[in-house]
Amino acid sequence: MITQKDVARLAGVSVSTVSRVLNESSLVDEKTKQIVESAIKKLNYKPNLVAYGLRAKSSKLVGLILPEMNHYTYASFAQFVEGSCMEKGYSMLLGLHHNECELEKSLVDEFQRRNVDGLILCLAIDEQNLSNNLMEYISVPTVMYERTFNNNRMGGIRFDNYKAGKMAAKYLAGLNHKNIACTVGPMGMHYVQDRFFGFRDELTVQGIEIKKQNVLECDFNYRVPNFVSGEDAARAFLDGRSDRDIPTAIWAHNDNVASGVIKELHRRKIKIPEEISVMGVDNIGLTDMIYPSLTTIGQPLKNMAEKSVEMIMEEIELGEEYKADIVIMEPELIIRESTGKCRS
Amino acid sequence: MITQKDVARLAGVSVSTVSRVLNESSLVDEKTKQIVESAIKKLNYKPNLVAYGLRAKSSKLVGLILPEMNHYTYASFAQFVEGSCMEKGYSMLLGLHHNECELEKSLVDEFQRRNVDGLILCLAIDEQNLSNNLMEYISVPTVMYERTFNNNRMGGIRFDNYKAGKMAAKYLAGLNHKNIACTVGPMGMHYVQDRFFGFRDELTVQGIEIKKQNVLECDFNYRVPNFVSGEDAARAFLDGRSDRDIPTAIWAHNDNVASGVIKELHRRKIKIPEEISVMGVDNIGLTDMIYPSLTTIGQPLKNMAEKSVEMIMEEIELGEEYKADIVIMEPELIIRESTGKCRS
DNA sequence: CTGAAAGCGCTAACAC
DNA sequence: GTGTTAGCGCTTTCAG
């Protein structure tokens, strides 16, 4: 390993001069600067970031903690976070907690022991369960992703799930659908609730009532893949019903579930969207790859990732002055082929 | 931040004693050990890993460098690598180079400056272009993922692409298909070549000749999504052909492309697999979510990830003694709904 | 068995 | 302007 010492020796100066050149603390003679710089180049010296971090008490490291990576939204979010960090001269540590609190805690610990400058965190559990527990462990600037809560100490960023639900309902109502079904995840999760309440409220505004048997809570327990829940849901909405009772539109609370719905409809040779319109939320990569391509409400993942990193940077900069804020990002209606006018 | 100093003060011992307790270098009296341990607990002291790393010249950090995260195989591989690292007490830095050599180089640089103990690297470019360039920059234990090459300095791990091609061909031939089409990526990439050569060679073994117009090189340039290439390919295999000329089976060189093929077939109301069988490679999450679910040749991503980390650990341990090895992992035939017996 | 001291590679006061 | 010195939090000789 080449160190400042080596450079200093070659250039015939002291290490602090080398340091000064590197940090552009202008108080260095142009001539010595040149000499040092050529020595740096000759030795191909690169400052060691561990030592820098120890001394400067800043690691230039951001820790990103997510549930998993097998899910498009997380993978994509991670990709954008990485990009933003890189751009700002930070590297990204990635940890996955698989929705296990123990793992989550040890990741937080580990990352803090690595002096991360900031943490972007998507909690394993609902905000209720956590507040007392994990919160005290965290002593670095943190942005909560997706599961936010107000503690005016940590920033948060999330998607406007309520509005997403409303947009979906409005769009389907605008296509003249009256008999509408939907899936929901476990209502314990805020974001799940929000999506559903938005959907229901907007239907009410539109003068549409959603029948109880047309709302299906999926067994969203991480043991059954989402799309299988979708297949089950489609079955529930179709089996043993008279034609009049069959919904003309199905809104799934996420795209994975929607893909399962579509799969089951294909299996039954039901035409999409001619007979039944299908819609999701998230705008994952899959939406364009299936037939028919899926109409959905998109999350602005890139913006959310960039904003998260910006918030972290701001928090790092301001320190105590920082005032925690929860940023809620706008959903976007993305119309593809899986939805159409109601024909009955 | 709580440091050893604080613990030492509280326990009434020296920092070196604290360090000894932490590192279990047994030469410490049971009684003082107890005192120190209770002080540690009381203060909730956690050793700082940056300082440890600087001193020990081991960061307990593995750097994973991949092209991107929007692709299922990479996301999944990353997930498994993270899990393996975690298990072994390592954290994972993640970097994405988006197939840009410049970015790749700066990631390697950056990670090395962070004293990563090892690197798992999926190159941005084909091995040819790189050897002179990047190789010299890398001075830590490295495992090449997916794009391997023999330089007996770095380990490598990849999927047996040739065999994957063979397995696909054998399976389709076994279903009695004779008129078979396939897609290929840019033949400059070894792994693309391997898949195709395996496919072609096995067809020859089976006494089947693949017509030139039934091999379509996709414009696999990262500007067009894979699945769009698949749609284009399907069109090319179908348009302006007499019924006799239309293939009864299409093998795509990856699952994303296969999904595009399926999409286009749906659009034309062609029954899968009754009229045309479709098959892919990789076994990405999508394969189960589309209709019909996709028969494919699976990569053992979990094994590959675990093996990569093991190789890194071995290399770290053995140092100069380490003998670089290229490990080639077995493909697995996964039969789903998109393929069936030839009916013509 | 334990404490004191040196040093990992770097930066920042403080002299000169 | 530049060199000297101290110190970030830790481990590891070396004495005792």
Describe the protein's topology.
The structure is a homodimer of 344-residue chains.
Chain A: H1 4-11, H2 15-23, H3 30-43, H4 49-56, E1 61-66, H5 72-87, E2 91-96, H6 101-113, E3 118-121, H7 127-130, E4 142-145, E5 155-159, H8 161-174, E6 180-184, H9 190-205, E7 215-217, H10 226-238, E8 249-251, H11 255-267, E9 277-282, E10 295-298, H12 301-318, E11 326-329, E12 332-334
Parallel strand pairs in A: 1-2, 1-3, 3-4, 4-5, 5-11, 6-7, 6-8, 8-9, 9-10
Antiparallel strand pairs in A: 10-12
Helix pairs in contact in A: 1-2, 1-3, 5-12, 8-9, 10-11
The structure holds a DNA duplex (16 and 16 nucleotides).
Domain HTH cro/C1-type (chains A, B): 2-46
Keywords (chains A, B): DNA-binding, Transcription, Transcription regulation
GO molecular function, one term (chains A, B): transcription cis-regulatory region binding
Can you characterise this structure?
Two copies of one chain form a homodimer. The first copy, chain A, has helices at residues 4-11, 15-23, 30-43, 49-56, 72-87, 101-113, 127-130, 161-174, 190-205, 226-238, 255-267, 301-318; strands spanning 61-66, 91-96, 118-121, 142-145, 155-159, 180-184, 215-217, 249-251, 277-282, 295-298, 326-329, 332-334. Chain A has 344 residues and is an alpha/beta fold. Chain A folds into three domains: 4-50, Orthogonal Bundle (434 Repressor (Amino-terminal Domain)), CATH 1.10.260; 60-159 and 301-329, 3-Layer(aba) Sandwich (Rossmann fold), CATH 3.40.50.2300; 161-299, Response regulator (Rossmann fold), CATH 3.40.50. Chain A has a six-stranded parallel sheet with strand order 2-1-3-4-5-11, sandwiched between helices. In chain A, strands 7-6-8-9-10-12 form a six-stranded mixed sheet, sandwiched between helices. In chain A, helix 5 (72-87) links the parallel strand 1 and strand 2. The relative contact order of chain A is 0.11. The mean pLDDT of chain A is 93. Chains A and B meet through helix 4, helix 5, strand 2, helix 6 and helix 11 of A and helix 4, helix 5, strand 2, helix 6 and helix 12 of B. Strand 2 of chain A pairs antiparallel with strand 2 of chain B. Chain A binds a DNA duplex (16 and 16 nucleotides) through helix 2 and helix 4.
